[in-house]
Amino acid sequence: MPKLWNDTIGAHRQAVRDATLETTAALVAEHGLRAVTMSQIAEDTGIGRATLYKYFPDVEAILAAWHEREIASHLASLEQIRDRTRRPARRLKAVLKAYALIVHASHGHHDAELASLLHRDERVVRAEHQLRRMVRDLLADSVQTGDVRGDVPLDELATYCLHALAAAGTLPSKTGVRRLITITLAGLRPPH
User: Fold this and answer.
1) How far apart are CA 131 and CA 133, in angstroms?
2) What angle do CA 29, 33, 34 make, to 5 degrees?
3) Among candidate residues 107, 106, 77, 96, the one with its CA nearest the CA of residue 158
4) I need a labelling partner for 51 at 20 to 30 A (CA). Which of 19, 20, 34, 156 fits?
5) Residue 111 to residue 109: CA distance in whole angstroms
6) How far is Cα 176 from Cα 180, in angstroms, rounded to an integer?
7) Is the same domain home to 99 and 50?
C-alpha cells in the first residue's frame, strides 16, 4: 500500500481510539463505571459497535488504555518541567509542585470503584517506579549542591515527598496544595 494510504489509515485509527477513550472517560465520570456499556460508547463516539470491539474487548480495557495515556502524559509533563531549568533545587521544586497539582486535579475525578480498577495495573506500578526514580535523582542532585539534607537515605526522602504530596488529592483548594508543597520542601532542607 502507498505510504499516504497507510498514514491516513493510521491517523484514522488513532482518531477513533482517542475519541473512544475520551467518550468513555466522560461517560464514566457522568454515570459511573457500572452504568456504561459498549453500545453507549459506540453510539456517543459515532462508530459502530462491531468497530468498537475491533479496538477494545470491554469498557475496562478502554479505561485501562485511557489511564495509561493519562499517566504517560503526566510523566512527560514532569520530564519537560524537570528539563526547563538547570539548578537542581529549582528543578526539584518545580517537579514536586507540578506533581502535587496533578494529584490535586485528578483525584476528584474517580470514584472508589474506578480508582480500584485503574490502580491495580502493572503499568501503574512501572509509572510509579519511574516517578520515584525521577524524584530520587532530583534529590541526589540537590544533596550534591547542599540544598537538600544528606543525612537521610535518598529512597526515604523520595518516599517522604511522594507520600506527603499524595495528600494534595484530599485538599479542597490550590492554596492548600501550595501550603503542602511549602511544608514538604521545608522537610527537605539540611539541618542547621
Assistant:
1) 5
2) 140
3) 96
4) 34
5) 7
6) 6
7) no
**Domain containing 1: what range?**
1-57
How many domains does the chain fold into? 2
Whether 73 and 153 map to the same domain: the answer is yes
Q: Quick count: other Cβ atoms within 10 Å of Cβ 164?
A: 18
Cell 454515570 belongs to residue: 31
Q: Is 95 exposed, middle or buried, given 0-12, 13-18 or 19+ CB atoms closer than 10 A? A: buried
Indicate if 32 and 77 belong to the same structural domain: no
Q: Does residue 71 sit in the same domain as residue 5?
A: no
Question: Cβ atoms within 10 A of the Cβ of 36, count?
Answer: 22
Reported as a single tens digit per residue, the pLDDT across 42-92 is: 999 999 999 999 999 999 899 888 888 988 999 999 999 999 999 999 999
Residue 48 CB neighbour total at 10 angstroms: 11
Give the CATH number, domain containing residue 182: 1.10.357.10
36 and 76 part of one domain:
no
Q: DSSP state, 33? A: G
- CB-based contact 88:151 (threshold 8 Å): no
The answer, yes or no, to whether residue 185 has pLDDT greater than 60, is: yes
Q: How many CA atoms lie within 13 A of 18 on its CB side?
A: 6
